[in-house]
Amino acid sequence: MSLRTEVHKDTGVAVVTLDRPSRHNAIDLETAGELAASWQEFRFDDSVRALVITGAGTKAFCTGIDRSTEVPQPASPYSTDDPLLTIGPKANDLWKPVIAAVNGMACGGAFYLLGEAEFVVADETATFFDPHTTYGMVSAYEPILMAQRMPIGEVARMALMGTAERISARRAYETGLVSQVTAPGEALDAGLECARVIASYPTEAVQGTVRAVWAAKEAARAHAFAQAPHLIALGSLPPERQAELFAARRSGPGSGSGAGAGGGPDPGHRFR
C-alpha cells in the first residue's frame, strides 16, 4: 500500500497520507488507484465530515507522477490518458471539505491534489514549482488549477520558469496559493485543527458551502480542461526526448536524491 488513511471518529476527521517517502511521494498507477478508491469510500462514510491530505516524511508533500510509471497513450492527439485526472476528491464526487497540509516539495502533479482541496496549509519548509517546461512537456492542467487560486501572472511565471525557480511558502501565502504558513513540521497539526472545527458544524451546511464555492469555479475549469489534452499532445516532446532531458539534469553538478515530477532536484534553482 502506498497510501495510509486514518479516521478519527471522535472528531469526524480523516487523514489521507501519501506514503512513498523514498520516492518523495510521487504517484504511480497503484497510488493513483488507491487515491481514487479512498475518496469514493469516504463519500459513503458518514463518520467522516472533513479530511486532511498530506505526505509522509519531511522532504516532500508530493512530486507529481513517478517518472518510472509508463502510461500507454493513444496515437491520436485528440485523446490523452492522464492517470492524475482521477486522483482528486472532486474528480471522485467527494464534496466533503479537504485541507492539504504541505511540507517540503510540492511540484508538478501535486497541483492536481492542491487544486481540488478547499485550502492549503504549509509549513516554512514548503516549496512549490512546476517542472514541465524544463523537460519538454506542456504544463496544462496544473496552471489551469492554480489559476483558480493565484494571480494569472504568478501562475504563468511558475509554469514557464520550470525547475529554475521555486516558490517559498511565504510567497505562496502572499499570492493566495497557501492560506496559512506554520513553523516547520506543524502544517499537519494546523490542518487537523481546521478540519476539526469544520467537522463540528452541521454536515449539510458545510457540504452545501463547498458546492457553492466550487460552482463559482467549475464552468471556467471545464472549458479550460477541454483544451488541455490537445495542447499537451501537440506541444510536448516525445517521451524518449523528455527522458533524455530529465536524465541529463539529474546527472548535472549538484544533483542528488530528490524530486521534480517524481525525479531529482534541479541543481541551479532559485527561490522567491
Automatic annotation (TrEMBL):
Region (Disordered): 248-272
Keywords for this protein: Isomerase
Pfam families to which the protein is assigned, alphabetical: ECH_1
CDD domains to which the protein is assigned, alphabetical: crotonase-like
Comp. bias regions, Gly residues: 253-266
Signal peptide region: none
Molecular function as annotated in GO: isomerase activity
GO biological process: fatty acid beta-oxidation
Alphabetized InterPro entries for the sequence: ClpP/crotonase-like_dom_sf, Enoyl-CoA_hydra/iso
Protein name listed in UniProt: Enoyl-CoA hydratase/isomerase family protein
